[in-house]
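Q: I have 237 residues here and want to know how they pack in 3D. Can you give me a structure?
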Amino acid sequence: MEKPQHKVVSVRFSKVGKLYHFEVDPHLDVNPGGQVVVETARGWQLGEVAQIIGDISSTGETSWKKIDRLATADDLRQRQENEEKENRLLAFTRQDIRNQNLDGVKVVSVEYSLDGSRISVLYSYEGENKIELKNLKQEIGKFSQQSQVELRQIGVRDEAKIINGYGKCGRCLCCASFTKEFEPVTIRMAKDQRLPLNPAKISGCCGRLICCLAYEHENYRELCKKMPREGTEVVID
């Protein structure tokens, strides 16, 4: 018995965001770069088709949520209105944090679901002690007149990805320009590449080890295997 085939595409919800797989109904004409509406854990969202994966056989264990529809002019207009509301709510939230003296809390981004029924507030926290944000959540709900407000703490690397900036190389941060997911970066990579172990030289804007240490690490390891050990005398003909 043949396994059922499913047409699958990858969708992103931000410029360099993680890709998520969704199933497409045969009657939908979906192309890369097209805008689609899908239901996610954070409500209805407007996403961009990044890639056509193709027909995939279902194993019975794998299932994908389906794309609901192609985005309409009304959906695009709603997304623009939501962005204006996000800017107003972001300014309010930052001011309320100052009013409540929530030291160490920094709001990075505010996101409305497409239908406006849910709000996600992404924040970072530099303090060591646990902090209570119940009052902040209530104030956000009052200001936005929404009951479904999610406060989600993110790490410093995610914060850099959202805010963007320039690295030591003079280019826009890799995480904000082309990398989709963070890869593990270790101090061993810096050692293998004979880089000075000076935190100021091998750390990025986020304060963590620069992501580009991982780009050529395997090449360095392979080359080092073929090179003479340090201190070895080499005779060049």
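Q: Anything worth noting?
A: The first strand starts at residue 5 and ends at 12. The helical segments are 73-99, 134-144, 156-163, 174-177, 187-192, 199-202, 217-226.
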